[in-house]
Write a structure and sequence with these properties.
Mean pLDDT: 86
Order of helices and strands: HEEEEEEEEEEEE
Strand order of the largest sheet: 1-12-11-7-8
Low-confidence stretches: 1-27
Number of helices: 1
Radius of gyration: 16 Å
Structural class: mainly beta
Length: 167
């Protein structure tokens, strides 16, 4: 899977994005938005904010591969639409370089850990979910970019959003 053409789980979110896209049809093509830590990003259906990333020594016994470091940041997603939908942790891709393998997703949460961002959760209209996202990245990485790609109901890519976090 290439960083340029990453696609995420196609769920109910796709249908809702298509509906929003139809409402915005006269507004032009897909766009790309960049933000920094603690800036709120506005998508068609929700707002999301990534807190500043920090390197940590350990977290609940997670193994850190040699040559990597463990990074955490807080992610908040707020449903700004009139309908409920599912949000997935893996909808937010993590990127740390220009190489073909310099990306991934956050570490899956332990089912007993209510501090981590959940694997998936339902968000009713106006509700929000907040949690810690953890990732192992190479020791020499200086920036972690959180990427979100809207996927339209027809399978085409919509707008994309990037939040750059300094390490």
């Amino acid at each position: 899977m290439s960083k340029k053409a990453f696609k995420f789980n196609k769920t109910l979110l796709c249908v809702l994005i298509l509906a929003a896209a139809l409402l915005l049809a006269g507004c032009g093509g897909a766009k790309s938005t960049r933000a920094k830590a603690d800036e709120t990003v506005h998508t068609a259906l929700f707002d999301f904010t990534c807190g500043q990333a920090e390197v940590i020594d350990s977290y609940n016994g997670i193994d850190i591969p040699d040559g990597d470091k463990l990074v955490q940041f807080q992610l908040t997603v707020e449903n700004t639409s009139d309908d409920g939908y599912l949000v997935f942790k893996d909808d937010f891709q993590l990127q740390w370089g220009d190489g073909e393998a310099d990306f991934g997703v956050g570490i899956d949460p332990d089912e007993d850990d209510d501090k981590m961002f959940p694997e998936s959760c339902g968000l009713s209209a106006g509700s929000a979910v907040t949690g810690i996202v953890l990732a192992t990245v190479p020791q020499d990485a200086t920036t972690l970019t959180v990427a979100y790609q809207e996927v339209l109901g027809n399978g085409n890519d919509g707008n994309n959003f990037f939040v750059d976090l300094s390490l």
